Amino acid sequence: MSLSATTAPPSPAAPPSPDVSSRRSRGRLLNRLDVKYSPYLYIAPFFLIFGAFGLYPMVRTAWMSLHDWDMIGDHSFIGFDNYTRLFSDEYFWNALVNTFGIFALSTIPQLLLALFLANLLNRTFLRAKTFFRMAIFMPNVVSVAAVAIVFGMLFQREFGLFNWLLGLVGVDPVDWDGQRWSSWFAISSMVNWRWTGYNTLILLAGMQAIPKDLYEAAEIDGAGPWRQFWQITLPMLKPTFTFVVILSTIGGMQLFTEPLLFANGNILGGSQREFQTLAMYMYEMGIANLNTAGYGAAVAWAIFMIIVVVSLVNFLLVRRSAK
Which of 4, 67, 95, 186 could form a disulfide with 75 if both were Cys (CB 3.0 to 4.6 A apart)? Predict the structure, then answer.
């Protein structure tokens, strides 16, 4: 005899208690807030620091440049008189010429040498690559004061190494810090020695990001190393090279420490301002002379605008040459 049993339908689940529903809704709300607003909290420290030490000084300097600002007295609004004064200031134009001269003698050879060294370090046949990469970066971590002391001894008029070498070939001693061209060369050599390795490593990182398949295909097609460099490396390196050019432009237009130490702390950059840069002239007007702080602020903003224009020109030139 078989028994037919009927199963009772399952009873409906009990609704969650109000406390559980409240916790769930609060958790979903916190999750949405975390996803939506936590990224802003992560980047907020940068903007706070930039606002305090970057944006505010720029706005403050722009406001000072519109005034006859005396650091120990009153200041009155004079509009753009400080900027119009720049056009008739022979010391400003002298500093501008010195800045561009040192910039040309340092940046152009520096970038060409950095490009050559980066391409050499990127070769597969080179041994002890890590050692050479560390060695080429060492000048950048050396104190700039130590660099200035060493180069100051090398470029001494009476007992300097370079004048001794020139004397071996019958050339009279050069007064390196007493003439414009010789001081430009001495300071630019110091800049090149410090920053060539830094730019080399940046360019090397860009080269190592280029796919190796391109070189292998070019080698199969019969392209030699020189043709691979011009047809593959340079076009693919354009973004990195543009970044290095702009970075070098900013540094070159703000050159201050090397010429100041080369002049043994003389803010004039030589007895006749032979190598006073724009940054040194800004320091002279804005800090050394307390009664011309407004004019020094105008010089600072002039430097900023020059950097923008020169960086844009370099960007366009690099972009056109890479096409």
Answer: 67
Angle (deg, nearest 10), helices 90-121 and 293-321: 40
Both tokens of 152, joined, read 């100051």
The gap from C-alpha 109 to its chain's centroid, in whole angstroms, comes to: 17
Domains of the chain, by residue range, sit at 81-322
Asked whether 67 and 294 are in contact (CB, 8 A), the reply is yes
pTM of this structure? 0.80
| 3-state SS assignment for residue 66 | coil
Residue 283: pLDDT band (50, 70, 90) is very high
Class of 81-322 in CATH: mainly alpha
DSSP string, 153-194: HHT-TTT-HHHHHHHHTTPPPP-TTTSHHHHHHHHHHHHHHH
CB 300 within 8 A of CB 282: yes
Query: At 67, phi and psi to the nearest 5?
Result: -130, 155
77: three-class secondary structure by DSSP: strand
The mean of the pLDDT values for the chain is 84
Give the model confidence (pLDDT) of 41-51 as tens digits.
888 888 899 89
Note the pLDDT tens digit of each residue in 236-275.
888 888 889 888 888 888 999 889 988 888 888 888 888 9
